[in-house]
Task: structure prediction
Amino acid sequence: MILTTLESVPGKSITQHLGLVQGSTVRAKHAGRDLMAGLKNIFGGELKGYTELLHESREEAINRMTEQAQSIGANAILNIRFSTSSITQGASELFTYGTAVKLD
Amino acid sequence: MFDLILFLTLLALGFGFGQYLESQHYKSIIRRESSLKRIPAIATKHLPPEFTPCSTQMVCGNVVISIDFFKKFVAGMRSIVGGRVSSYESLIDRARREAILRMKEQAATLGANYVFNVKMETSSISKGRRNSIGSVEVLAYGTAISKQQAL
Result:
């Protein structure tokens, strides 16, 4: 499975266009991390816990998108975009989408 | 009275640690930026045709950075008179540069020469009391291109 943010894969041609695939996950932060974030709001600096949490969640979203693409018989996803939105206080949705294609 | 002392202590702690952490962070950003200069991040969508024998791989880097209490206070004061909120400008600048650096570091471990079609996403993570933004997340992502033969 080739994942790319470009519109084509260099050196390969698209044989079949399979439409949009997407993956999303909603994550809430847990209380311990929230407490640490509260402290960090005084001192400033990087919130490593959140960075990791969001990174893991995004991997999860990518995995779901990849699974969807595999189930419809694609072998590459082009033009991938990420998007983040906060649904309620303390929970955010991480969303990723792209175009599933079949390459030769 | 106790509240005032607590507030001033937080302000002093925020000022001290915040300034220190920011200067340390900028030093590390500048050092790493100069060592990763060999991998340019390019915002173009289309690959030049002479690149064609190459391998592609998606790379991304994210970072969450929090503002300190002192800067938050300064920004609050600024919102009364209006104008440039320079305390938030440096926060966002650090976050963007750090995210790009992390993306480039991932590209460097893959042995890539360029990162094409770089996109960035910014979102605020925690909205603290009185709905003031506490921290921002920046995600940078793109496609790492490794040339397999010389041009």
Notes: Chain B touches chain A through 48 residues (CB under 8 Å). The two ends of chain B are 71 Å apart (CA to CA). The longest strand of chain B covers residues 54-68. Helices of chain B lie at 2-35, 69-81, 86-109.
